[in-house]
Write a structure and sequence with these properties.
Layout: E1 2-3, E2 9-11, E3 23-24, E4 29-30, H1 39-57, E5 63-66, H2 71-84, E6 89-93, H3 101-114, E7 117-120, H4 124-138, H5 145-166, E8 169-172, H6 176-181, E9 194-195, H7 202-215, H8 221-225, H9 245-257, H10 262-269, H11 273-285, H12 287-290
Parallel strand pairs: 5-6, 5-8, 6-7, 8-9
Antiparallel strand pairs: 1-2, 3-4
Helix pairs in contact: 1-2, 1-7, 2-3, 2-7, 4-5, 9-11, 10-11
C-alpha cells in the first residue's frame, strides 16, 4: 500500500496475491484494488496463500490429507484445493474399528465436491497386528488411550508411506484448540510437513467452514452438524475430554494470546476457577507435543511455535 503524509491510504494492491499498482506522488492519487472483506475471508485467503507458498517453496507440488469426515480435515482439504489446485490434492479415508459409515460417506462426498482424488485404506489389519504384537507385554491390562493412539499412529504410518511413494507433502489437520491442550497424538494425527490450521481455534474452524460454503457448497452439512469426535472408541465425543469449545476457546485466547492469569479469566467470564486452571495445566503439560509438531501458518496475534516460546518441562504450576 501507499500512505500519504496525512496517513490516508492512496493506493493499495489486492489482498493475499501478487499485484501491481500505480500512484502519483504529486497528486497523491493511485490505484485502489479490491480487498477481501471480513475476518473470515481474510483469514481463509491468508491460509490459502501460506499453504501455497510453503508447499511450493519446500519443493512440492502435491499434498496428501487424511479425511476423517470431520470438519477440521474438511476445511484443510478446501484450503489445499484452493491453494494447489484440485488435481494436486489427494484425500485419504482411513476407517478403523470405530469409524462410522457416515464419516466415510462424508469424506467421500467432500472429495467429490472438491474434485480431489480420494483413496480409502482401512487401518483394521494394521491395528489388529499391532495389538497382537503387543499382547504378550500388555497381558492382563485393560484397554485405554494406548489402543486409541495405535489407531491414530496407524493412520500416520499410511499417510507418510503415501508421501514417500508419491513425493507429496502431508498436511496435518489439527486445530489450535486441540494443539493447545494436547488433544492430539504424536506420530499419529500430528504427522506431516505443514499444520495448516494449527493457529485456527475450533470455533473459528466452524466460521471458516461457513465462509467456504457461502461461496460454493463444499463441506457436507453432516460434517458441520455432527458433534466433533476422534472416533477412537465407541460413542466418543470431544466433549468427553474437553470443555465445550465455546468455553475452551475463550480461555485459550485469554491465556495464550493475552497472558491473563487463571483468576483474571475466571473473574472476567464468570467461569469456575478450577476449570480455568485445569485448561491452563493442559496447555503447559502439552508443550513437549507442540515442540514436535509441524510448523503452522500464523494468523492470530500469537501462534504456537516462534510466537510463543515456553520451556518444555516446567516444575512450577501456573
Amino acid at each position: 500500500m501507499v500512505i500519504a503524509p496525512d496517513g490516508q491510504v492512496i493506493a493499495q494492491g489486492k489482498s493475499f496475491e501478487e499485484d501491481l499498482i500505480y500512484f502519483d506522488s504529486q497528486t497523491l492519487t493511485g490505484d485502489m484494488h479490491p480487498q477481501v472483506a471480513g475476518e473470515e475471508g481474510s483469514a481463509y485467503e491468508a491460509l490459502v496463500l501460506g499453504t501455497r507458498d510453503y508447499v511450493h517453496k519446500c519443493g512440492f507440488q502435491k499434498a496428501i490429507i487424511g479425511l476423517s469426515g470431520g470438519i477440521d480435515s474438511a476445511l484443510t482439504a478446501s484450503i489445499a484445493a484452493d491453494a494447489l489446485g484440485s488435481e494436486n490434492v489427494v484425500g485419504v479415508g482411513m476407517p478403523g474399528p470405530y469409524s462410522s459409515r457416515g464419516s466415510i460417506d462424508d469424506a467421500r462426498e467432500l472429495a467429490g465436491n472438491l474434485k480431489i482424488r480420494f483413496e480409502l485404506l482401512s487401518i483394521n489389519e494394521i491395528y489388529e497386528a499391532a495389538r497382537q504384537t503387543l499382547s504378550p507385554v500388555f497381558a492382563g491390562m485393560p484397554q485405554d488411550v494406548t489402543e486409541e493412539n495405535i489407531q491414530s499412529r496407524a493412520r500416520g504410518l499410511l499417510l507418510m508411506a503415501l508421501s514417500n511413494k508419491f513425493g507429496a507433502l502431508v498436511l496435518s489437520t489439527g486445530n489450535k484448540s486441540e494443539l493447545a491442550v494436547g488433544y492430539c497424538t504424536l506420530y499419529g494425527d500430528m504427522v506431516g510437513g505443514l499444520a495448516v490450521i494449527s493457529d485456527v481455534p475450533k470455533t473459528m474452524v466452524y466460521r471458516l467452514s461457513a465462509y467456504v460454503n457461502s461461496k460454493r457448497r463444499v463441506i457436507p452439512e453432516a460434517t458441520i452438524e455432527k458433534p466433533p469426535s476422534a472416533e477412537l472408541r465407541p460413542d466418543q465425543k470431544d466433549s468427553d475430554s474437553l470443555p465445550p469449545y465455546e468455553v475452551l476457546d475463550v480461555i485459550l485466547e485469554d491465556y495464550v494470546e493475552e497472558s491473563y492469569s487463571a483468576e483474571q479469566i475466571a473473574r472476567l467470564h464468570n467461569f469456575e476457577l478450577g476449570l480455568v486452571r485445569r485448561v491452563i495445566r493442559m496447555v503447559e503439560r502439552s508443550e513437549y507435543k507442540r515442540q514436535q509438531a509441524a510448523p503452522g501458518i500464523k494468523i492470530s496475534a500469537k501462534a504456537f511455535g516462534y510466537g510463543r516460546r515456553f520451556p518444555i518441562a516446567a516444575k512450577a504450576e501456573l
